[in-house]
Amino acid sequence: YTGGGIIHYVRHSRIRAACEMIRESDYNFSQIAERTGFQSIHYFSRTFKQIVGMTPTEYAISVKSMSSPLPISE
Question: pLDDT tens for residues 14-37?
Answer without folding.
Answer: 999 999 999 999 999 999 999 999
